[in-house]
Amino acid sequence: MKTLERLGILTSGGDCPGLNAVIRAVVSHAVLTYGWHVVGIPYATRGLLDRAMMPLSLHGLDLKGIDPLLTMGGTILGSINKGDTLSRIQEVLDGYAALELDALIGIGGDGSLAILNQLATQGNWQFIGIPKTIDNDVACTERAIGFDTAVNTITEALTRLTFTAASHDRVMIVEVMGREAGHLALHSGIAGGADVILIPEISYSIAQVCQHLAELRDRWGRRFAIVVVAEGAHRSLESANQSCEAIKCGMGQYVANEIATCSPYPVDCRVSVLGHIQRGGIPSALDRLIAASLGKTAVDLIANGESQKMVAWQNGHAETVPLDAVLAKSPCSVDPASDLVQTARALGIYTGK
């Protein structure tokens, strides 16, 4: 087992629930099992540039025995998802050396992990990555930290909106995050009882969306509907050649405008853009469980001398995957032939082609 004087940990990219639970697991296992000193690097690589660190102790944040990290959203270390770190590589490497770090654990999405992996290669760091993103688009892991909580948050919002939609005979259009991946929209749409789910990976027709809404109305007597739209969804097949000016308002509003234009009968549409609400809140039980397992495993990998690996969640437990293999397959999109897509369609949800 490797003996370390100082283990660093940082969070990079957009925040999400569960990051503090990972920090808690890393500090607990590193201190209790290996007796290491653990320091947090504030604001990701900016902390390395500024040569800043904060000591992390096992009970440093306890409030009369209450451990807040398990349930606290966001990250106590702060995070950034902008800047040009790779233009200042030598400064970052010098900062790592100045902080006298023996190894580093980085919690981030595919973009952050790619940058940290490049830094680790050039600086010969011992580095282990842990995936986090509400988009769930990091390859080689079934779940990234934060995804489950975000799905729960969106699902609750859809449930609440359903009652209002039904009361006023409205079509509620809910725009969710996910960048160019539709995992959030697909999972939450199925769980939240959506009637239409539009994601980047599957083309769709506004005419067919309107036909589906009309069938709900005319055949089943449903005068309301819930439409989930991923922020990265593309324009409909009918408007594929139109100028991008049409969607500067956001995909949710774009779909609402298209439905209003295309529908054979008047439709009262309302658009809700959940935005950063999806990133906030107390982490779910599953995110806490995954955070504990991935954090513990990352520390063990450091102790065993492993480097440039990512700890993934596969088949209900932590697995180790080479970072190069992860980054080669990321970002990971929804497979249009997947079981979840087929499940949505079997439930009568319109998902496009």
Topology of helices and strands:
Elements: E1 7-11, H1 19-34, E2 38-40, H2 45-50, E3 54-56, H3 89-98, E4 103-108, H4 110-123, E5 127-131, H5 147-168, E6 171-176, H6 183-191, E7 196-198, H7 206-220, E8 225-230, H8 251-262, E9 269-273, H9 285-303, E10 309-314, E11 317-322, H10 323-329, H11 339-346
Parallel strand pairs: 1-2, 1-4, 4-5, 5-10, 6-8, 6-9, 7-8
Antiparallel strand pairs: 2-3, 10-11
Helix pairs in contact: 1-9, 4-10, 5-6, 7-8
Site (Important for substrate specificity): 111
GO cellular component, one term: 6-phosphofructokinase complex
Keywords: ATP-binding, Cytoplasm, Glycolysis, Kinase, Magnesium, Metal-binding, Nucleotide-binding, Transferase
**Spatial gap, N to C terminus:** 53 Å
- CATH topology assignment of the largest domain: Rossmann fold
SS strand fraction:
15-25%
In the CATH scheme, the class of the largest domain would be Alpha Beta
- Could you report the average pLDDT, rounded to the nearest whole number? 94
